[in-house]
Structure formats: C-alpha cells, structure tokens
Amino acid sequence: MIKYTITQFNKDFPNDDACLEWLKNNRWPDGIYCKKCQRITKHHKVSNRSAYACDFCGNHIYPMAGTILEHSATSLRLWFHAMFLMASTRCGVSAKQLQRELGVTYKTAWRMFKQIRSMLDEDIMSLLEEVEIDETYIGSRKPGKRGRGAAGKTTVFGMTQRNGNVIAVIVPNVQAKTLVPIVKEKVLPSSTVYTDELPSYFSLHRLGYKHKRVHHANKVYVMGDAHTNTIEGFWSLVKRGIDGVHHAVSAKYLQDYINSYSFRWNHRDDEQAMFLQILSRLVPSLRA
Ligand SMILES: [Zn+2]
Questions:
Q1: Which residues are found with C-beta within 5 Å of the ion, ligand 1?
Q2: What's the whole-model pTM score?
Q3: Which residue in 38, 153, 210, 277 could disulfide with 137, CB within 3.0 to 4.6 Å?
Q4: Cα(38) to centroid of ligand 1, in Å?
C-alpha cells in the first residue's frame, strides 16, 4: 500500500476550499448536471459558502449534502485531517489523540471520531475457499459487571477467508444455534472451514463444509494447514487497538470499533493509501 504522508496531505488539502473541491470532483467526476439547465454545465465556487453555482443559471449545489459533513460546524479541513490521523497507524488513534492533534474540544473530537467510524462499515456478502472461524472475548466497559474471565467481556465471532476478507460480529453466546446460522449465511458451502474444538462447530460438516479442527487442547496448534492463525492475527489487531489505543470501549460502541478494524483489515492490501480509502467513503458512489 502506498504511504500518504502529512507533507502530501498539507499539499493536497491546504484549506477548506481544496477539501470542498476534492469532494465536488469526486462526487461529480463527469461534471455537474444542472437540474435547471438540464445539462452538464460549468460551475464556480460561491464565496463564503460551501456551494458551487451554475455559470449559466446560478443554481447552487452542495458537495457536503448527504454526507456526515452536512450539518457540521467543524471546518472541512479539520474533518479531512481527522481522517488522515485515523488512517495513519495500523491501530488507529483515539478520540483523545484527535482532540490533542486537531486542537478541538473533546466533545467535538469524539463526535468526529464516531461519525468517521460510522462510514467504515462493510457489507461483505460471502467468504469462500479456506475460511478460518473463531470466537474471542473482548474486554469492554459494561455497567454493573466487573472482574476477569468472560464476565464483563463481550463475545465476538469472526470468520476470515485466508488472504481475503474478515467478518466479525458481536454475539450473545457461542452456542451452535447462534454461530451456525451466521456461518451458513456468509460462508459458501464448498469451502473448507477451520475451527477450534468448540462443540458448537460439530454440525458444520453436515451442512456440506469440509471441516478441519485445530486441537488446541493437545497443544497441537498447527497440523499441516489446520490452523487459525489468520483470524488470530485479526483478533490481535483488534485487541491491540482497543486495549492499547482506546483503553477499553463501551459495549455500546464495540461493534462500530470492530467494523473499523475489519475495514482496515479488508483493505490492507489495496493499492490506494488508507487515508484516501477512508476519504472515498464520503462519496456514496465510491463506496463499492
Ligand atoms: Zn444551470
């Protein structure tokens, strides 16, 4: 993946107008269709407004309309800078770090952080070929529950195609009736699935999957290709991020955080820099 430096950022986005220009050019790459003139016309920036006007009839268009930026009082460049910072490390940054770097209040930083994260959900339709399946427990702040072990932690279920995408969701428990339908919905039946010895997975072969189990109990972690190293790599990214960067996350927002790590994971080998990938999420037509 190409690295996108702060020098590059400052050059590409020196001010609000440059950010708005980027948004306009990416929303309407073939030019802006003016509803009044009923054709693609030239538009110019309206001074002191986040709008462009048709050269012929003066009709306004608003590049921020329908995006998370629409009703924000925060400057466009600060939003872009926040996305740059959130893309800049493997584990991301916290709202606290955004507050410090951007010089905004914690409330503003938190709101930006939450809204940028909300753009990073993904709708992965299916996984195939070799799919590793695993469950884990992630510490989160839940009212009224304290202590070690599963109590006070949230159960997360994950599936990853080797060399491919990951899907991870919060689940109420690890019973077969919870996990198996998720596998059935997302993993193609011709796939080989790799799991640990959790009895909940025993019925997978009846659904047509080739099922290989990793015998953690016998301390045989890797038998040939029967391993779950890929999904474990994803869990460690999520845990490093949540414990190390965010210092525990409220259970209410945990799925959102997991989605943003899934996004990073699924796009880690894309050619485009992570910042530009996050930025493209602002443009509905570039989301695919
Ligand atoms: Zn017009």
A1: 34, 36-37, 41, 54, 56-57, 59
A2: 0.85
A3: 153
A4: 7
